[in-house]
């Protein structure tokens, strides 16, 4: 029987904590080593020394391999099989974003725009200093992989599309400028999330968003029934022009933040809390009923807010056209916001990118890892709910 992925035991962990060695590095090394052993067990259909009719091959020793991580160098023993067919994904998966982060930091150092602190970070990160040739080799291999991901054909239909952008600092011609990082997430008919595109633009203009969406369509994007985004004017215009068939859902979280601009600074929380509850109703009729009651309750005290909400709230209620089980996932851009938070956590290490290429490289590498994790995970949405809703609507129309 194949052994399940093992973890560090309590006694091993106690030994690590009591030893003189670097605890975190040794803990990571132990976990990665166990992952390699588990991968070999799965490939052979048997654990080391196990007798079984289902065995697919035999072990043949180990070879040494160094894995460079942010906790230092990990010296690992990679198992081999007699046929030489075993291949692990541990190194490629783990090092893709690590290489992007390392290359960005190292480029800063090599180009002479870094500080002594950056040099210290890169050496602590990887255990050695960098030369221009070593960085060039890392960048070339990584860019080839990321270019394939960025230009891949989108063969499936994506009924749901989520769009957002964040900004990163990039050095350009001696000046530090902000660049928009535009990201698209799609949900296919199997209910799986996928990162469709990551691109850089000078700013979030209507033309840059339109080019971004048209680029997706040139790669095969089709079947979009609902697009979710914030209220950015350029993005809204681009969606109308490039995806006129898609219903637009304005992110209700951004909407509630915008509502603060129409409230006095010392206003209480009850007003917006009650407005927030409207988005938890089961259907549009119930939501509109509560909306009318909310307006009656707060009209006299906050007339400016109530007028603004009445004019704009319908844009945030499009998700009520979807099955109830999809509401919490499609009424906001939160799934993309979580990806942006992960990107922010990593780009803060760099702070100011030496050029646009290094910025796009790191963010795309992080996006690829997220994309692969999503593909391997359980389905995000039950799309049969949407299929059944459309069938029911068609039958009612025919009747």
TrEMBL record:
Q: Which NCBIfam families match?
A: transpos_IS256 (NF033543)
* One GO biological process term: DNA transposition
Similarity comment: family membership: Belongs to the transposase mutator family.
Q: Matching InterPro entries, A to Z? A: Transposase_mutator
Q: Which Pfam families does this chain map to? A: Transposase_mut
Purpose of the protein? Required for the transposition of the insertion element.
PROSITE patterns noted in UniProt = TRANSPOSASE_MUTATOR
Can you name this protein?
A: Mutator family transposase
Q: List the GO molecular function terms.
A: DNA binding; transposase activity
Q: Which UniProt keywords apply?
A: DNA recombination, DNA-binding, Transposable element, Transposition
Superkingdom, taxonomy of origin: Bacteria
């Amino acid at each position: 029987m194949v052994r399940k992925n093992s973890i560090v035991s309590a006694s091993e962990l106690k030994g690590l904590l009591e030893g003189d060695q670097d605890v975190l590095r040794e803990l990571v090394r132990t976990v990665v080593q166990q992952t390699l052993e588990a991968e070999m067990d799965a490939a052979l259909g048997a654990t080391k020394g196990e007798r079984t009719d289902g065995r697919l091959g035999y072990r043949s020793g180990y070879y040494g391999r160094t894995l460079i991580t942010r906790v230092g160098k990990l010296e690992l023993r990679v198992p081999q099989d007699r046929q030489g067919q075993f291949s692990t994904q541990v190194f490629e998966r783990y090092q893709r974003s690590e290489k992007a982060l390392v290359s960005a930091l190292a480029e800063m150092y090599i180009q002479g725009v870094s500080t002594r602190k950056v040099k210290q970070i890169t050496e602590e990160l990887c255990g050695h200093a960098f030369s221009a040739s070593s960085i060039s080799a890392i960048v070339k291999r990584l860019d080839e992989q990321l270019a394939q991901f960025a230009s891949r054909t989108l063969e499936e239909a994506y009924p749901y599309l989520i769009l957002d952008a964040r900004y990163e600092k990039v050095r350009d011609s001696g000046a530090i400028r902000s660049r928009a990082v535009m990201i698209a997430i799609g949900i296919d008919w199997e209910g799986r999330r996928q990162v469709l595109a990551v691109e850089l633009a000078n700013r979030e203009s209507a033309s840059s968003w339109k080019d971004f969406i048209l680029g997706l369509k040139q790669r095969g994007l089709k079947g979009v029934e609902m697009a979710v985004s914030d209220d950015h004017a350029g993005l809204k215009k681009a969606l109308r022009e490039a995806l006129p068939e898609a219903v637009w859902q304005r992110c209700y979280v951004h909407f509630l933040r915008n509502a603060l601009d129409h409230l006095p600074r010392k206003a209480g929380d009850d007003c917006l809390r009650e407005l927030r509850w409207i988005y938890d109703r089961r259907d549009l009729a119930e939501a509109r009923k509560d909306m009318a009651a909310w307006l009656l309750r707060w009209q006299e005290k906050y007339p400016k807010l109530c007028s603004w909400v009445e004019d704009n709230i319908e844009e945030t209620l499009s998700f009520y056209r979807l099955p109830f089980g999809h509401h919490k996932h499609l009424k906001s851009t939160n799934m993309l916001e979580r990806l942006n938070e992960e990107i922010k956590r990593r780009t803060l290490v760099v702070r100011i990118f030496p050029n646009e290429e290094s910025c796009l490289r790191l963010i795309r590498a992080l996006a690829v890892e997220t994309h692969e994790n999503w593909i391997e995970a359980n389905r995000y949405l039950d799309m049969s709910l949407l299929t059944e809703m459309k069938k029911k609507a068609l039958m009612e129309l025919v009747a």
